[in-house]
Amino acid sequence: MDLAEMPKASCGGRHGWKRSSIAAPPPLGIRKVVELENHPTPEQLAAQFANIQNIEDPVRRLAKYIAVVGRKVGHTRPLEMAEAEDAFTTIFSGNADPMQIAALIRLIHYRGETAPELAGMARAVRRFYSVNGGIDVPSLDWPAYLSPNSTQLPWFMFSALLVARAGYPVVLHGNCGTGELYGKLEQAAEAINLPVVASHSLAQGALRAHGICFMPLAGFAPQIYALLALYPLFESRSSMNSLVHLINPMGLKASFLGVTQPAYRELHRDASALLDMQSVSVVSTSRDVAELVPHRSHTIYRLLYGRESNLVLPTLSKESSDKHSSLSSFEFWYGVWSGAAVDKRAENTIIASAAMAMMTAVAAENESYGHFVERAAELWRNRHARVAI
Q: Which tens digit of pLDDT belongs to each residue from 244-290?
């Protein structure tokens, strides 16, 4: 396939990534509050004070959790897993005051999430936004949460296609924020005939028919999407950025995670162990998606049936990128898949990422990495042997 056959709607703008997201940004579900300029009446104040000890009130319970993590120095502690689950269940159900939401997610992130806190948050989010997909074969959960400011290309989508063609179902889920490129992943998926689905039931159908799908966050978890969209109010990340990796919307047993800080590798592995995940591989990259960049070394933190191990990969390749100046970013990305453009660094990224993803899906031992690289390279060479999944 050459560039003339590329989807025409994909080539607008200087970068070529021009598509709206599958769903409009939803409003954040919050508890109704009295506007600051409208002071409560004496009767309202009396009612509030009368109920302040009512532990059944979710707002009061959430206030207690904020106090646990937010008192003065020396008088705080992290939340226990059950406490974090209860606190974030209140938030995800739309019963929290907006000030409480901001206070809790900023306080936890400022101090640094613990594995029990993150696992408790994940248990809460899975109550609302995860189902048992009924997939009994080795399969893979692959989160992809890109910064709206990132100019890096989604090579991992090609890797995911190779993994699905190898017989391991793949669920990609994520978003690109709320900026100019917020529909970037949907556009990429559609260009390579990767099903884009907005619900769990549609995802189940796509997995049965095609073995792969992409689930935009706004479609299946609007409350989480709205919480991530609070970034401009803080100009910094929050606990939501750590949590989204652990949503696992189809309840799969293996996850391939990419985190932005090396310290988060152990954090997410430990949280995954508390969530009883069977196989997890965590790699540190410059963005929130798992992708092995060939021109740098990697230490991958793995969890295999409760056992921790680290896979150390040396620099895989010194190949430089060779982007064609005449092509937009989207055209170049698509051209590498179609064969109209050649970039050895990109190809090595795709192959290495697919190899690690397949290893994770089947919970293979570290020593088998070379075998899976050969398998991924073969799948890449033969990628045009079939038209679509």
A: 999 999 999 999 999 988 889 999 999 999 999 999 999 998 678 99
> 302 to each of 10, 76, 114, 161, 305, how far by Cα in Å?
37, 31, 18, 22, 10
Single pTM value for the model: 0.86
Candidates 389, 357, 186, 386; CA nearest to 375 is 357
Question: Do the beta carbons of residue 182 and residue 176 sit within 8 Å?
Answer: yes
- Distance CA(329)–CA(18), nearest Å, equals 11
Same domain, 223 and 177: yes
* Alpha-carbon separation of residue 313 from 295, 341, 367, 370, 371 (angstroms): 11, 28, 11, 11, 14
Both structure tokens of 357? 């993803």
| Last residue within a domain, chosen from 107, 129, 151 | 129
Amino acid type, 292: L
Q: How far apart are CA 259 and CA 53, in angstroms?
A: 40
What pLDDT digit, counting tens, does each position of 214-251 carry?
999 999 999 999 998 888 777 888 899 999 999 999 99
* In a shared domain, residues 113 and 142: no
User: Do 215 and 240 belong together in one domain?
Assistant: yes
Same domain, 14 and 68: no
The encoded tokens of residue 252 equal 């799969």
Burial-class residue 137 by CB neighbours within 10 Å (0-12, 13-18, 19+): exposed
Chain centroid to CA 283: how far? 13
State the residue range of the domain holding 216: 3-22+134-381
Q: What CATH number is associated with residue 267?
A: 3.40.1030.10
